[in-house]
Amino acid sequence: MYPWGDELAVCDKDAPNSAQFGDCEGDTAPLGSFTPNGYGLYDMAGNAWEWVYDWHDEDQTYFRNSPSHDPTGPESGIYRVLRGGAWDTSPESLQVSSRNRAAPDMHLDLIGFRCADNQD
Fold it and tell me: Exposed site from 31, 78, 108, 118, fewest CB < 10 Å?
């Protein structure tokens, strides 16, 4: 249900289900502030909504007939998809299936990117 399992998020930075969300202190947290998930990935939920490549499906029809593996969303649209929740949202918004939307030119302190770095 969440990047770490089925437990609701908590603000305890040492807990396996920890993340930055609305019940925690303040604003965004520095990267790597919370425990990584079981794959060793940090910050996969909370802190900032993540821009993703997909357009938002305004009429809610694309996914009824989409490919079952890695659907890319409609070819165009008005809004882009956001995922992962942010520092001002509820812990439920951190679910991996949770999605939001925003115009591509939207600038807010709770929208950003999740970056990957291969440290090998």
Answer: 118
